[in-house]
Write a structure and sequence with these properties.
alpha/beta; D-Maltodextrin-Binding Protein, domain 2; Alpha-Beta Plaits; 3 domains; 9 helices; Prephenate dehydratase; aromatic amino acid biosynthesis; amino-acid biosynthesis; Preph_deHydtase
Amino acid sequence: MRVGFLGPEASFTHNAAKTAFPQEELVPFHSIPACIKGVEFGEVDLGVVPIENTIEGSVNTTVDYLFHQTTIPVGGEIVLPIYQQFMVAKSNQQDWQQTTRILSHPQALAQSQEFIRMYFPNARLEATPSTAYAASFVADHPEQKMAAIAPKKSAETYELAVVGENIQDVASNQTRFWILGAEDVHLPLAIENQKMTIAVTMPNNMPGALHKALSVFSWREIDLSKIESRPLKTTLGEYFFLIDINIQQPRPLIDYALEELRLMGGTVKVFGNYNVHLIEGV
């Protein structure tokens, strides 16, 4: 089986994919949309992409693409503790505080703001497609005074020196990754929870639309672990609601709630009904 992931090698997504699929062929993609399209077009059987981070919230690129442009199911979720490392070329290890450019994925840059503010308030921050891409770029340009924020595995893979360890703003930083391409994915990992993720769109100009949508879950005592609004990309003020449901009630009860939403004139898109797996940080 071929499993796509947001690459290159040694990115956080690669670490998650390698832990979940240790015996499968892993295929890197340069961006989240490219990885999802790889699943759509049959280049890979499954895809692993980030969906949410403790500090920065949802990965909007993933959410919006899955809502607007595809019907690929979510078959599983991996939760990975995230530890950000500040790394430079080994030739710059002694004068690393002279760094003028810091490269990383936008989420990693946002997760490390306190460290950057303390040591590099004037450095230029540059977004890259992934953390591993940033590490690879820094390794390829040792003559420049720049650094990458990436996982420890990236430093090992691209032979960089870690000069700032665990620089993320929050110690309990985690990222959720979705496995795309099958409705039910079995992993060699312990199951922590079972969830369903849906997107709900209510009729325009309905008074109390969100309250009415949530009430179908409330009176049935269905536990929701996440509620978020995202623009419909039609006109200003129109949104869909992204909702995570903890599967603790019988499935027919949840189905009745979704049917009630539809009877109120809402539309419901089910991203998936999946198991949640927690793995150790790498």
